[in-house]
Amino acid sequence: MSSVLGRLAVACFIFSNFSFATNIADSRDSRNYNVMPSGKLNWFTSDLAFKAPEAQINGKSAYYPSKIWQSMCPEGTHVPTITEWEEIKKDRFMGPRKTPNVKNFAGKTRGYFEKEGSKKIKNKDVAYFAVAGYETQAMMFDLKRGNVKQVNLPPSALVPIRCVSERDLYAEKNVSRNDMIMTDTRDGKKYKVEEKAGKLWMTSNLKFSLQTAKQCFLEDTLFCKKYGRFYTHGEAKKACPPGWHLPDDGEWRDFQREKVDWDNMGVGGCRDWDEYCPESNTGHYWSATSIMKNTGRSWEFRRTGKNINRTDESVQKGLYVRCVAELE
C-alpha cells in the first residue's frame, strides 16, 4: 500500500437530500471530510486537500496530475469510476433541481491547472473532477446549465478529486451485522431484525414511547413487554426510528412471499375500542396505506389457520407496528 494512504474513520450518519455529517478522517493530515449518500456510495462534499508534492494547492482544494489520482484518496476510499459518476448524475444531477444541486456539489471549485507554469484556467461556470482509469478525461460540471458530462482535457491538466467510499447500510440503520440487532437511539431499546425481500424488517413489535398501560393488551404492562405497544394509525406513521418506516401494502405483500413465523406474527391481538382481539391466535399490524377516509389498512395474521386478512380499520383502533428499512 502506498505510503501516502491514510486511515478511514466512520462515525454516525444524518441524511436528507444534501445533509451530511463529518465522518471520514484522513490520518495523513488529520483533515475531516463531510460526505453525502448516493446509491451505495458516500461522496466527499468538498475537494480532497491532501498536500502531495505534485499537487497544486488553491485555497482549501488541491489539483492533482492524472498519474497520481489513483493513490491520493484516504485508505478505504477511492477516486470514482465513470460508472459511479454516471450513477450520481442520475441520482442527483437530473430533473428540475439539477442546476442548484450541481452548484452545491461543486462549491467553490472552478476550472483546472496546467502543469506547465501552474496556470489556472479561468472559467467561473465550470468545475472539473478526476475520473478513475482515465489520464486525459474528467467529469465537467456546467454550473450555469446544470449539465454533467465526461470531457477530454490536456495531458498536463491538474484537477480536483472527490473521493468515495462504500456505504455501510446496516450501520446507517443502527444495526449490528454480528447479531442483527437494531438499537433504537431514541430510547436504547433493541430489536432483532432480519433481511426479507431486500429490506430489513424488525422481528418484534415496536415498543417506543410507552406512556400508559392503556397502550398494552388488557392494560397490562407485562403484555407490552411481551408483545409491544398498540398505536393508532396516526401514531404508527410517526413511530418508527429515523431511517425506518411503517410498511405500506406493497411491502407487506413482499413480506408474505417468504416464510412467515406464525408463532411470532400471529399473537398479541389488537385493541378494538374497549375490547380486545384474541391475543393467543391473532396479531394485527398497521400499514402506511390508507384507502378510505378515517381508516388505515390493517394486516391480520391468524396463527391457528395460518392465513392473513387485510381490512380497512378505524384510525383510532390500536394495532401493532413492525418497522422496515430500505437497503438500497
Write the layout of secondary structure elements.
Layout: E1 21-26, E2 31-38, E3 41-44, E4 56-58, E5 61-65, H1 82-92, H2 98-106, E6 113-114, E7 119-120, E8 126-130, E9 137-142, E10 147-152, E11 157-159, E12 164-166, H3 169-172, E13 175-176, E14 181-183, E15 190-196, E16 199-202, H4 221-227, H5 233-239, H6 249-256, H7 262-265, E17 271-272, E18 275-276, E19 282-286, E20 295-302, E21 307-314, E22 324-326
Give a structural overview:
The chain is of the alpha+beta class and 328 residues long. It folds into two domains: 37-166, no CATH class; 170-326, no CATH class. It contains seven helices and 22 strands. It has helices spanning 82-92, 98-106, 169-172, 221-227, 233-239, 249-256, 262-265, and strands at 21-26, 31-38, 41-44, 56-58, 61-65, 113-114, 119-120, 126-130, 137-142, 147-152, 157-159, 164-166, 175-176, 181-183, 190-196, 199-202, 271-272, 275-276, 282-286, 295-302, 307-314, 324-326. A five-stranded antiparallel sheet has the order 4-5-11-6-7, with no helix packed on it. The chain has a five-stranded antiparallel sheet with strand order 13-14-15-16-22. The protein is elongated and about 85 Å long. Mean pLDDT is 89; it is low at 1-22.
